Each structure stands twice: as structure tokens, then as C-alpha cells.
Amino acid sequence: MTGPVRTCVGCRRRALNDELVRLVVAHGELVVDERRRLPGRGAWLHRDPACLVKAERKRAFPRALRVPGPLDTSAVRAALERLATEE
Ligand SMILES: [Zn+2]
Do 26 and 38 meet the contact criterion of CB atoms below 8 Å apart? Predict the structure, then answer.
């Protein structure tokens, strides 16, 4: 592997940046940082709804992003579905 490597918060596998999306909390909501430029902590996830489900089950997002409560992942799910149809 070459290039920056991150760990997916869903399956905990390491992957190249390009295979993952960066997620951040903006205005209390979990969103996909498509340009990877938003400030603050980011969590990395495969472009795979299965990894989103795994991360939700493990409550990985609040832990990775250091926020207290559960996060609404509906915007992320919609974004992953949109990315999947674009490829
Ligand atoms: Zn994954």
C-alpha cells in the first residue's frame, strides 16, 4: 500500500484514504466531509453501508469523534448510497 492509511471505524481494517470517506460532526449532525477539509476530529469509514452498520452497532462514531451522545447517521447513509451509484 502507498499513501496515507486510515482505519475504518466500522470493520477496523486499515485502508488507503481513497477507499474511505471522512466523517465529521457539523452542527450536531454526522456528515460526510467530501472535500476532507472540514475542521475538527474526523472518523474514517469505507464507502460501504455494511461498515456504517458495524460502526453504529459499536457506537464507534461518538467515541471516535469525542461527542457525548448517539449520532444520527441518516445523512451519511444517504451520502454513501449516492457515492455508490456514482461509481
Ligand atoms: Zn470498513
Answer: yes
- If you measure from the C-alpha of residue 19 to the centroid of ligand 1, how many angstroms do you get, rounded to a whole number? 9
Kindly state the DSSP code that residue 71 receives in the 8-state scheme. Answer: -
Written as nine digits, the cell of 57 is 452497532
Beta bridge partners of 31: 24
- pLDDT tens profile 9-58: 999 999 998 899 999 998 888 999 999 899 889 999 999 999 999 999 99
CATH architecture of 5-86: 2-Layer Sandwich (3.30)
CA 51 to ligand 1 centroid distance, Å: 5
pTM value is 0.89
Which candidate, 84, 82, 64, 70, places its Cα nearest to that of 28? Answer: 70
Place of cell 452498520: 53
CA of 55 to the centre of ligand 1 (A): 9
Residue ranges covered by each domain of the chain: 5-86
